[in-house]
Amino acid sequence: MVKRSGRRPGHHDTRGQILQEARGLFAAGGYDGTSVRQIAGAADVDPALVHYYFGSKKNLFLSVLGAPIRPEDLLLEIFAEGPQAVPERLIRTFLSVWEDPVTGPVMIGFLRTAVANGVSPGLVGDCYGRRIAHAVVRELGDHVAGEDASFRASLVASQLVGLALTRYVLAVEPLASKTAEAIATAFAPTVRRSLFGWLPTATSQPVAKSVS
C-alpha cells in the first residue's frame, strides 16, 4: 500500500511533530547520521512534507537548533533583581539552561554537531546567544545608550556563545570544571561593561547611563 502524501490524518501539528522527532534523531545520530527519510518515518509523514515545511535538512536542523532557548522564557529570571543585577543573573540563567539535565545534553549535542558540520558561526551565534542578548538589551531600554544597543548586544552574544563553546564543547580547563557561580562572578564585570560601560565607536563616544 502506497503511503498517502499530505498531512497525517487527525494530526493538527505536523510541523511540530517533525521538529520533535528531528530533535531526538539529530541529538542521537548527529547531522550526517540523520536523514530526512528517517525523520519522516519517525514522524509518520511523507518525506515530501519535511521539505514542504523546512525546505532542506539544513533548514530543519537550524530550526531544531534554535528551539532549546526561547529568550522570552528567560527574561523574568534575568531581571528578577532589577537592571543592576542583570550581568550576573544573565550568566547564571544562561548556564542553568546548559546544565539542566533535560535541555543541557540536547543543546550541547546540537552545538557540537553544528560546529563539526560547518554550520555558519553566525547562525549558531544567533540561535545560542544573539537572540538572548538582544532581548536583554531591549528590556534594559534607557539604561543603555540607544545608538550602541545593537553593538552592545553583539558583544554580549559573543561572550555567551564563546562561554558555551569553551566550557561545554571544547571543555577547556579549568573553565570546564569551575562552578557556575564562579564563572558568573568572573564574567559579570565583562558583561556589565558591555551593557553599561563606555564603548569606543567610529562615530561617537557615548556616556554610560546610570543604572538604578
Structure notes:
It is elongated and about 55 Å long. It has helices at residues 14-29, 36-43, 47-54, 57-65, 71-78, 86-98, 103-116, 121-140, 149-169, 180-196. The protein has 212 residues and is mostly helical. The protein starts with 13 loop residues before the first helix and ends in a 16-residue tail after the last helix. It has ten helices and no strands. The chain folds into two domains: 14-65, Arc Repressor Mutant, subunit A; 71-196, Tetracycline Repressor, domain 2, CATH 1.10.357.10. Helix 3 (47-54) packs across helix 4 and helix 8 packs across helix 9 (149-169).
Give the radius of gyration: 20 Å
CATH class of the largest domain, anyone? Mainly Alpha
- Secondary-structure element series: HHHHHHHHHH
Give unreliable regions as ranges: 1-10
Task: Count the beta strands.
Answer: 0
> Helical percent range?
55-70%
> What average pLDDT do the residues reach?
81
Tally of structural domains = 2
Q: What's the end-to-end separation, in Å?
A: 68 Å
